């Protein structure tokens, strides 16, 4: 169970990080 929870948490963090990275990238280009 712990492994599953950790795996799910990692997946969620990864998706969130990717979304944030994309948002930052778009903002950076827009500012340029």
From TrEMBL:
It is found in: Cell inner membrane. The keyword 4Fe-4S does not apply. Keywords: Cell inner membrane, Cell membrane, Membrane, Toxin-antitoxin system, Transmembrane, Transmembrane helix. It is a single-pass membrane protein. It comes from the Bacteria. GO terms for cellular component: plasma membrane. InterPro entries: Hok/gef_toxin. Belongs to the Hok/Gef family. This is Host cell-killing modulation protein.
